[in-house]
Amino acid sequence: MIKLFTLMGFMMVTGFPIAICLALASLIYLASSDMAPVVQGAYRMISGIDSFPLLAVPFFIYAGALMNEGGITSRIFEFAKACVGWLRGGLGHVNVGASVIFAGMSGAALADAGGLGTIEIKAMRDAGYEDDFSIGITAASSTIGPLIPPSLAMVIYGVVASASIGKLFAAGFIPGIVTALALSAMIAYFAHKRGYKRDARFGIRYLWNSFRRAFLSLMAPVIIVGGILGGIYTPTEAAIAASAYAFILGSCVYRTLTWRRFIRISLETAETTAVILFIVAGASIFSWILTANNVATLFADTLLEITDNRYLLLILINLLLLFVGCFIDTIAAITILTPILLPIVTNLGISPVHFGVIMILNLNLGLLTPPVGVVLYVLGRVADVPFERVVKGTLPFMVPLVIILILLTYVPQFSMWLPTLIYGK
Q1: Which of 168, 229, 323, 412 is most buried (CB neighbours < 10 A)?
Q2: Given its phi and psi angles, is residue 130 left (phi above 0), alpha (psi -120 to 50 degrees) or beta?
Q3: How does pLDDT run across 178-193, given as a tens digit for each residue?
Q4: Does residue 354 sit within a domain?
């Protein structure tokens, strides 16, 4: 196993994409050992992506892209501004509110950062907010997307852990809302400290007009989340419905989606989907090798040698996830670590659904931390500021996110109350 990890580590350091590192290192390991034929590894890669729930991935990506290009994002931002723009530090609260609404459509942090981030940072700059504050809250609020249903990360975790995706969606909803409230509290602190003013007056007419303009856009999360939780359709079918709805709004209602844009979005979605599924395929063979060599058992024994205290073990697991999230893509980390960590946490009496939300929030923090921090690089390009300044602006907003992670870890009802209410025990 040392040879496998050494080879993969060398490939990562030399700049290979994570999917190539996982797949190629695993295949080379099989070719140089007596564990199994290489063709068995290829079979494991194919079977890893041969899953009906994974069909939700391209359609949720597609829906998010269609909403960005179809003018839905800007309408959501205007509605959020009418709702909370009158608070001190108003556009900061608008940033969070728009992320909550958009989370119910795209389910991906990068879609939030790349789509809403462009609008939010420009608006906050024009209003006189400092770049570090604008970028920091935009980065932090993007982590809400993978918590509030639908969520691409939850779909991947549900497939790998054989957990109910519907229960995962329900389990992430309250933590997502509380995360938004915690970030709003941080914004209020900065607004008081820096003397930020209100960006708009509260007006019933303005609120009504923005709601009327955004009504059909706001129906998207209702259709997606309401349909899943109401048992009308599966998460995969919800993703298809979301894509169809976004296409109809952009092309027929708002008429902002041209054929040229539609073709470009389709090609970009196909490319992004291929990358994600390649990562899942590579991680499938990698995790299969780890499982076959009892790495999960050895890792569990090592942790238990350190301590058998439930609370300390959870701290160690969280620290491991935070560390891995700094270096490995979220999707890859989920597919690699879930088979290793899930047996440990289930032995501790932790529900796979509860652990899934912990893992996803934990790995989301990795999107905001160097060196891999993809959201940081995206916002650096969007705002045209140096990477170091993006990191500096994001650090203060990590505080409420870490507090939410601790609360989520040690108070199971925080995430499990809603799925228990909807689905029972």
Answers
A1: 168
A2: beta
A3: 999 999 999 999 988 8
A4: yes
- In this predicted model, what pLDDT tens digit does every residue of 263-314 receive, in sequence order? 988 898 888 888 878 888 887 888 788 777 877 677 777 877 888 788 888 9
Its pTM stands at: 0.81
Question: What dihedral angle (degrees, nearest 10) is formed by the CA atoms of 14, 17, 19, 25?
Answer: -10
132 phi, psi to nearest 5 deg:
-65, -40
388, 382 in Cβ contact below 8 A?
Answer: no
Q: How far apart are CA 87 and CA 93, in angstroms?
A: 8
| Residue 293 is assigned to a structural domain of this protein | yes
**Domain residue limits at 139:** 50-423
Would you call 232 helix, strand, or coil by DSSP?
coil
**How far apart, in whole angstroms, are the C-alpha atoms of residue 279 and residue 296?**
20
How many domains in the chain? 1
In a domain, 216, yes or no: yes
- Taking the C-alpha atoms of residue 307 and residue 33, their distance in angstroms, rounded to an integer, is 34
Chain centroid to CA 352: 18
Residue 229 to residues 133, 222, 232, 391, Cα–Cα distance (Å): 36, 10, 8, 37
